[in-house]
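Write out the 3D structure for:
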Amino acid sequence: MRDNLRAWIVDVIFGGAVGVVIGAITALNIMIFFGTDAGYEAGLDELFEQRPAVAVIVVALLVVGPVLGVSLARRVRGGRNS
């Protein structure tokens, strides 16, 4: 039981961290290529004003990244323990 809890904690921390990094890199690239003329210097408020669809995609990537990271970490660990 204790090992299972430890595995969950490790998966949440490392999977979430990897997901945040990958989500942030992807969101930043989308913001640079499809966002405003200011590129990476533009804030989300400017992006929402000028290109709301791109802003929604960027926010979705920032939210979904950690969730997918934890999900993949759990799936990988589950495959190793079977």
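The chain has a mean pLDDT of 87.
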